[in-house]
Amino acid sequence: MPAGSRIEEPSARVVLEARNVVKTYGHVTALDGVDFELRAGEILAVVGDNGAGKSTLIKTLTGAVRPTSGEILLDGVPVHFKGPLDALHAGIETVYQDLAVAPALDIAANLFLGRELRAPGLLGSLFRRLDKKGMREEARRAMGELKFRLPAIDNPVESLSGGQRQGVAVARAALFARRLVIMDEPTAALGVRETGQVLQLIRSIRDRGLPVVLISHNMPNVFDLADRIHIMRLGRRAAVVTPKTHSMNDVVAIMTGAATA
Questions:
Q1: Distance from C-alpha of 165 to C-alpha of 110, rounded to nearest angstrom
Q2: What pLDDT is recorded for position 259?
Q3: pLDDT tier, 89 (very low <50, low <70, confident <90, very high otherwise)
Q4: Number of structural domains, the chain?
Q5: DSSP states of the chain
Q6: Residue 28 domain-assigned?
Q7: What is the pLDDT of residue 3?
Q8: CA 137 to each of CA 112, 119, 132, 153: distance values in angstroms, whole numbers, following the listed order
Q9: Is 124 part of any domain?
Q10: In three state form, how does the secondary structure of 174-197 look?
Q11: Are 48 and 232 in contact (CB under 8 A)?
Q12: Of 43, 180, 193, 239, which is the most exposed, with the fewest CB atoms less than 10 Å away?
């Protein structure tokens, strides 16, 4: 099925929405009345030239930056995230470019980093012993569902390739996300084969029912994955298009101001 064919109806439920969001830093306007809609069951790519406002928009949606004005809604309910933990607790998982993995820990420990399972009974509640066996079993199950192949689950992450490390970070987001997953340049600095693995992993997340926001400069990846493309220019939303209606050249022209949608 070609990219863009999954989300056909404009009435599809909006999971995450921004209305007229403005963010200023002194006399600098980073976001100038931006609207944004992520629909259920889609991969929405966010593209734009450097300085277009992509990063500020995503940071605003995930609580890392508080907007100067405007409104953000999650499943139709206004939210006011005071920090990234608020977004995390609301079911929004974000995979950043730096991955935030602990190289010396094994794959299972990284999947549960900061959310470790405690051993049952007094060992866990009183002595706070970790349920390492349970975490490894859950890690194997999660990786199996996502169809992402990795070495033994107790291997340290530092022994993995760049693509495999990216897979661990993405799998962690998929394991704990309840509402949506946001990915910032997930294939940056990866080879062709590893990029293919990560793209398939993103598709698996969507197929499990979680909508995905994909920030990327890689237009072939965007057109391979995205159902819709949100184009940023000079702190504004320039257009929202689909790979069915617009070509890569069309999108680049809108990004640079050479054309309008």
A1: 10
A2: 87
A3: very high
A4: 1
A5: --TT-S---TTSPEEEEEEEEEEEETTEEEEEEEEEEEETT-EEEEEE-TTSSHHHHHHHHTTSS--SEEEEEETTEEE--SSHHHHHHTTEEEE-TTTT--TTSBHHHHHTTTSPPBPSTHHHHTS--B-HHHHHHHHHHHHHHHT---S-TTSBGGGS-HHHHHHHHHHHHHHH-SSEEEEESTTTT--HHHHHHHHHHHHHHHHTT--EEEE-S-HHHHHHH-SEEEEEETTEEEEEE-TTT--HHHHHHHHHTS---
A6: yes
A7: 38
A8: 12, 13, 9, 9
A9: no
A10: HHHCCCEEEEECCCCCCCHHHHHH
A11: yes
A12: 193
How far apart, in whole angstroms, are the C-alpha atoms of residue 190 and residue 93? 22
Please report, for the domain that includes residue 81, its CATH number. 3.40.50.300
In a domain, 198, yes or no: yes
Rounded to whole angstroms, how far apart are CA atoms 261 and 240?
8
Distance CA 134, CA 114 (A): 15
Residue pLDDT, tens place only, 3-44: 333 444 455 799 999 999 999 999 999 999 999 999 999 999
In a domain, 114, yes or no: no
C-alpha 67 chain-centroid distance: 20
When pLDDT is averaged across residues 170-182 and rounded to a whole number, the result is: 89
186-222 in b/e form (b: 16+ CB < 10 A) is: bbeebeeebbebbbebbbbbbeeebbbbbbbebbebb
Range of the domain at 174: 14-105+166-256
Tokens of 160: 């993995």
pLDDT at residue number 59: 93
Query: Do 238 and 261 touch, CB atoms closer than 8 A?
Result: yes
Let me know: does 38 contact 240? Beta carbons within 8 Å: no
> Among residues of the chain, what percentage have pLDDT more than 90?
52
